[in-house]
Amino acid sequence: MARDYYEVLGVGRDASAEDIQRAYRKLARKYHPDVDRSPGAEDRFKEINEAYHVLSDPDRRRQYDEPPRAERGFAGTPAEEFDFEDLLGGMFGGGRGRGPGVFMPGADQEAELQLTVEQAYRGGKRTLTLTGPAGQRTYEVNIPPGVVDGQRIRLAGQGGRGRGNAPEGDLYLVVRITPDRRFRLKGKDIYVDLPVSAWEAVLGAEVPVRTPGGQATVKLPPGSSSGRRLRLRGQGMPSRPSPGDLYAEVKIMVPAKPSPRERELFEELAKVSDFDPRRR
Amino acid sequence: MSIYPLALPRRLSVDRVAQASGVHPQLIVRFIELGLVDVQRDSMGRLWLDPDSVARVARVQRLHFGLSLNYAAIGLVLDLLDRIDELERRERSWI
């Protein structure tokens, strides 16, 4: 059984015809499948039209308001008595004397596909469940490696239902990549922090760095200060014809609580060194 | 000598679009006049429409019957919806 029609339109049972009309117009504008492209909107729009169809007609409304009689043989409420396709026919032109042959392809729909940077990097199969015109539906989507934020994946014929023999619309999955502090995306390039010790920064080192695809090693040249960007060519997001790059940004870290020996060495360094980072 | 394949232009006649959309050809002509669908005229003066006109006509019909909008107003609605799409896309790409 459908939801209560008054509830659907968000009006009280004592609402006037004008109130009902106003509520209906507002909701219809909001949930029209060409305005709201989420897969649930089409059902919502139909529900709103169904409720309005009943509540806008004084006779039908009275019938709906009457509690179902206790007599046997009268099953269900009047709401179940009308043919919904009939109503759609009326709504989409059939009832206006345009004759049969209602033919209207379904609307395209859009849903978001939330991915982590790693998932976008690797691609692969992903299942997602959406509430569409035919209720809950599970899709297994093949995501190509290296999708970028905003890219759309088209599922042909999975959108809004068509009227008559008209085809269904398409469902577009819009890729949304969850921002990640570890892997910052700029187009198909990836930026990561490269924490290094002061001595590594001075002497140079081979430093492991995490990438969305796993671990990589970056060669830190001697004398690298914070902010220096080391490029790992082709280690960014996979893409054709050429993949993006990965940039490791040097970030010098120091021990918050140095051991007495470390402290001693740093004190000695401070005495011996004439390096002044503020002198230009 | 090279041989080039013949490529048929991807375009539809008014009648073809009307047939595919399930509406009267006169209504398609009306949509053209209102600028709801794009059209090109060939050297013979015939009108040709894009294959995606069928989807466009369906959108116009859904808005017309679903929201009781008149066809002239739908031109504005389509423009505004396209603009919102464009703005949302641009906003996303700045993040």
Structural notes for this entry:
The complex is a heterodimer of chains A (280) and B (95). Helices cover 27% and strands 26% of the residues of chain A. Chain A is of the alpha+beta class and 280 residues long. Chain A folds into 3 domains: 5-88, Orthogonal Bundle (Helix Hairpins); 109-177, Urease metallochaperone UreE, N-terminal domain (HSP40/DNAj peptide-binding domain, Sandwich); 184-272, HSP40/DNAj peptide-binding domain (Sandwich). In chain A, the strands form 4 sheets. Chain A has a 4-stranded mixed sheet. The radius of gyration of chain A is 31 Å and the shape is elongated. Helices cover 59% and strands 8% of the residues of chain B. The mean pLDDT of chain B is 86. In chain B, helix 1 crosses helix 2 (25-33) and helix 1 (14-21) packs across helix 3 (53-67). Chain B has 95 residues and is mainly alpha-helical. Classes of the chains: A alpha+beta (280), B mainly alpha (95). The A-B interface holds A 28-29, 32-35, 45, 49, 91-93, 101-108, 149-150, 164, 166, 179 and B 21-23, 54-55, 58-59, 61-63, 65-67, 81, 89, 92-93, 95.
Helix-strand blueprint:
The complex is a heterodimer of chains A (280) and B (95).
Chain A: H1 5-9, H2 17-31, H3 41-55, H4 58-65, H5 84-91, E1 109-115, H6 117-122, E2 124-132, E3 135-143, E4 152-155, E5 171-177, E6 184-186, E7 189-197, H7 198-203, E8 205-211, E9 214-220, E10 229-232, E11 246-253, H8 260-272
Parallel strand pairs in A: 1-5, 7-11
Antiparallel strand pairs in A: 2-3, 4-5, 6-7, 8-9, 10-11
Chain B: E1 12-13, H1 14-21, H2 25-33, E2 39-41, E3 47-49, H3 53-67, H4 71-94
Antiparallel strand pairs in B: 1-3, 2-3
